[in-house]
Amino acid sequence: MSDGSQKSPVVLKFGGSSLATPDRIRLVAERIAERRQQGDAVVAVVSAQGDTTDELLTRLRELAPDAPAREVDMLLATGEQQSAALVAATLGTLGVSAVSLTGWQAGIATDPSHRRARIHGIAPERIRRLLAAGHVVVVAGFQGVNDLGDVTTLGRGGSDLTAVALAASLGGSCEIYSDVDGVYTADPRIVPEARRLDAIGYDEMMELAALGAQVLQGRAVEHAWHHGVEVVARSTFAAGPGTKVHAAAGTERMQPVTGAALDRHVARILCERVPDRPGIAAQLFGSLAEGAINVDVIVQSPSHDGRTDIAFTVADEDAPQAEEIARLAVARIGGGHVSRDADVAKVSLVGAGMVSQPGVASRVFRTLADEGINIIAISTSEIKISCLVRRTDAARGLEALHRAFGLAEA
Ligand code: ASP
Ligand code: MG
């Protein structure tokens, strides 16, 4: 086997479902071994097996519903460490020399925060030495260490970020392996005629990830964009080119829309009859920002008798806290009625080509109207349009939009 240290290394990331059983771990080890045998210097980044992360969270919640974030991270990080050791040891049985590393051992330094820590820097010397000595390095994804020496985690789906950050730091490329063979024009489980994209822009992929597409973690795409790391999303189980995520998606941009997404994990907070005077929105959304709550589609209605309605959407998991914060803020600014509506979903279209092509919004609204679907709220950016609809209408709306914009045709 040649010494892979001459070439720039390749970082291969394997998701939890690709590691869920012993057979699958063997398959992953074989994939890694093939690359090594081709002479590549290989860093593998692994997620926790199957639903391990959720199971660990459930176990912890039973014992300590309000466990400190530090302990949550300490526990969750073990899932990825198990995978790393299992994969490295399995590589050994194939005659491939491999060393597993925790995030800390891999030199991944983060800010002090837990559960959604940001990577501050990577000291890749140890990985470089191991690669130069001909080893495959298997890194536990999703984790790092802060200045106190405590284990931190990088947010759900954070192993993607580990992989991209290591690729950036080592000057290599990054391949993300999962049970889907790339990024689709829409979730094929909802829209059967959805098509795999050969390429997609970083900007479009970031929007799609934020709007509910689950192939790649949004923060990982953002990091790849900043550092110019080319990312390919492909399948562990089937050969194929996958989807390249890069700076310009070329011909794809001839079409105004590249992909569609559906997010059912949203809720709407309604603040009715709050006083309509300058500074009210600033106070309300200021309080939400202090609570680190991400707010999306915001609608303020015309005022009546000096009072107005303000509604906004948040992620499902943030909804109880958002409602509570809104209730306190509204009471402070002069009263009103706050309620929460969980029966909503967000249907979105994304495409960098929207910037230059007028009429996309009106086509979206016409399509939904023809389906008899009521739009509760709308939000747009230069490259996306999102409509809030009833949950029961969401899948039908997604399919209709996918059809109306010809996304099934290349
Ligand atoms: N195991 C973590 C999660 O489930 C991180 C990852 O898989 O990327 O979110
Ligand atoms: Mg994942």
Overview of this protein structure:
The longest helix has 25 residues, at 69-93. This protein has a domain at 10-179: Acetylglutamate kinase-like (Carbamate kinase), CATH 3.40.1160.10. It is globular, with a radius of gyration of 23 Å. The strands form five sheets. An eight-stranded mixed β-sheet has the order 3-6-2-1-9-11-12-10, with helices on both faces. It has a four-stranded antiparallel β-sheet with strand order 13-18-20-19, sandwiched between helices. It has a four-stranded antiparallel β-sheet with strand order 15-16-14-17, with helices on one face. The protein is built from eleven helices and 20 strands. By secondary structure, it is α/β, with parallel strands linked by helices. Bound molecules: aspartic acid and magnesium ion.
Helix content: 25-40%
Radius of gyration: 23 Å
Number of E strands: 20
- For this structure, the CATH topology of the domain at 10-179 is Carbamate kinase
- Could you say what the CATH architecture of the domain at 10-179 is? 3-Layer(aba) Sandwich
The low-confidence parts are 1-5
Give the percentage of residues in beta strands: 15-25%
Q: Bound compounds, please?
A: aspartic acid, magnesium ion
Under CATH at level 1, the class of the domain at 10-179 stands as Alpha Beta
